[in-house]
Amino acid sequence: MVLTLTSLLSAPDLASGGVQPNPHQATYILGYSTWWFFFLSNDELLEILSETKDPQRVQPHLKKCFEGINTLEFTAEQEIVAMVSAEKEVVSFSGTIIPADAKGMVEKWLAQVEEQMVQSMKDTCMEAIQAYFSTAKNKWLLDWPGQIVICAECVHWTAEVAQAIEDSTLPDYLRKSNDQIDEMVKMVRGKLSSGARTTMGALIVIDVHAQHLLLHTARDVITKLISIGIKSTQDFNWICQLRYYWREGSVFVAMITTEVMYGFEYLGNSTRLVITPLTDRCYRSG
Asked: Cytoplasm as a keyword (predicted)?
């Protein structure tokens, strides 16, 4: 017998009415592969499991399971092909999920949703990083999901600043960055969709920081690096910045001696708070 949430909650001793089902205890028995269910109340979990033949009944509870996914996009054949954020941003999956193949095991196809979320974001990020070199910047910024634009932009920013440090051309790169920010400001003042405007606003916040203090906004960072006369990418004033690298088919985020793999969890297309020196200190001590 395959151990599933449905089978656990419909066991004979539970069905007889003598014992009240405890969905969260069932998730502990199954292990942490069903960690999303811990964010649901017992009533919500029972509602999902009582409608195993209709995957659409999971839709109202998705936001509690996956922070960035508001709904899933189904085809007429009840196949899942994309995820949709609360801001109505649609990100297509790299593959197709067929809930019917799970034979009523909600936890099984939800695990596939998580896998597709991560893989699709990784695939899209790789395509965006590659397209950066062959597409006009103004068009590139609008061609990809907001989270991917920010991640890919950070990858290229890290590479370009490192190259400028090695070539001693940081002042030239600062002028280039200022021009790019001015172009983005012009785009924001023009006609944009609400999603594109949110993405541009978040990117401007990051870029302005990166030019000033090398992590407040891109511009803040570069300005600081120039003022201290940095000459090497091994200088502490550079490695203490939040840097993004694309290698081995994934994105790695580094700061000082710490390096972690980017998780590619979909977060939607949200706004960004202004980055301050205190933000940097929190990053470094976190």
From this structure: yes
